[in-house]
């Protein structure tokens, strides 16, 4: 795929998957908009990309603020042109053990992981539909497939994101706007630092090319690594008692 005339907006780009995708897209010729709340860190990343010969702009904004997201999208358009690709990568993790469930912690997580994704989409989708071209990509998770111990809110947020993008994909058929849902397993990023068990943990440098390949092929969905994705799919078919028994004995978190 020729990225040289493409413009990508990547939410939460200072570290992890967002940073990896930003650098790789810039190396392939795309202009990238880096969006997160930490302006100083964003500027540093943008400078690194430009030092390698790429094109980048820092867009300090909070994904929970719809108006700020529209302003950021407009600033990217003014600098490089209309947004061709949105990578909705904003996400936080939290341990939500039912016995100690905190409604505020759950609300904070949902506001970032779900509402933040909605705000990201609404910031770019009108222009994409008007032009008849564009690509919406959600970084969801294999945790969207079934509930996991002490991760109820996180699983719910990723399930909501996946369902949201499935609905968008159907609504946008025939408009020229494609939709892709990425379901990664455990990738070595700041989000997995506190996870006690990380089966089939994948290095970021290995995961980023896989995600980009799925984006370039305009795949409707992509789940990886295949070993963990196969287990997650199989668990969807298990009766609830058996799934619960296995989940308790193979909890990913202590």
How is the secondary structure organized here?
Layout (H helix, E strand, L loop, with lengths): L6 E5 L4 H12 L3 E6 L2 H13 L3 E6 L5 H15 L4 E4 L14 H29 L2 E6 L12 H20 L5 E8 L19 H13 L4 E4 L1 H12 L2 H10 L5
Parallel strand pairs: 1-2, 1-4, 2-3, 4-5, 5-6, 6-7
Helix pairs in contact: 1-6, 3-4, 4-5
Structural summary, described in words:
The chain is of the alpha/beta class. The chain has 8 helices and 7 strands, in the order βαβαβαβαβαβαβαα. The chain has helices spanning 16-27, 39-51, 66-80, 103-131, 152-171, 204-216, 226-237, 240-249, and strands at 7-11, 31-36, 55-60, 85-88, 134-139, 177-184, 221-224. Strand 4, helix 4 (103-131) and strand 5 form a beta-alpha-beta unit. The longest helix has 29 residues, at 103-131. It is globular and about 55 Å long. The N and C termini lie far apart (43 Å). The mean pLDDT is 92.
Keywords summarizing the entry:
alpha/beta, 8 helices, 254 residues, seven-stranded parallel sheet, single chain
Biggest sheet layout: 7 strands, parallel
Q: How do the strands of the widest beta sheet line up side by side?
A: 3-2-1-4-5-6-7
Multimerization status: single chain
What is the residue-mean pLDDT, rounded to a whole number? 92
Number of helices: 8
Number of strand segments: 7
Structural class designation: alpha/beta
Range of helix content: 40-55%
């Amino acid at each position: 795929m020729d990225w040289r005339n493409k413009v990508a907006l990547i939410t939460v780009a200072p570290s992890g998957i967002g940073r990896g995708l930003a650098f790789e897209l810039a190396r392939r010729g795309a202009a990238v908009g880096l969006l997160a709340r930490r302006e100083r860190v964003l500027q540093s990343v943008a400078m690194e990309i430009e030092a390698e010969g790429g094109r980048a702009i820092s867009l300090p904004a909070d994904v929970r603020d719809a108006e700020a997201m529209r302003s950021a999208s407009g600033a990217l358009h003014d600098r490089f042109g209309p947004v061709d690709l949105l990578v909705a990568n904003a996400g936080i993790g939290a341990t939500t053990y039912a016995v100690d469930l905190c409604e505020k912690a759950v609300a904070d997580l949902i506001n970032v992981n779900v509402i933040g994704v909605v705000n990201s989409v609404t910031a770019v989708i009108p222009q994409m539909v008007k032009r008849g071209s564009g690509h919406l990509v959600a970084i969801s998770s294999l945790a969207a497939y079934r509930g996991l111990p002490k991760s109820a809110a996180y699983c719910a947020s990723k399930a909501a994101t996946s369902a949201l993008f499935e609905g968008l994909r159907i609504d946008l058929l025939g408009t020229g706007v494609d939709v892709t849902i990425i379901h990664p397993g455990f990738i070595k990023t700041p989000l997995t630092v506190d996870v006690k068990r990380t089966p089939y943990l994948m290095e970021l440098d290995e995961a980023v090319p896989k995600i980009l390949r799925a984006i370039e092929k305009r795949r409707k969905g992509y789940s990886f690594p295949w070993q963990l994705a196969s287990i997650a799919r199989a668990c969807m078919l298990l009766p609830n008692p058996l799934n619960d028994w296995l989940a308790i004995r193979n909890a990913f978190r202590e």
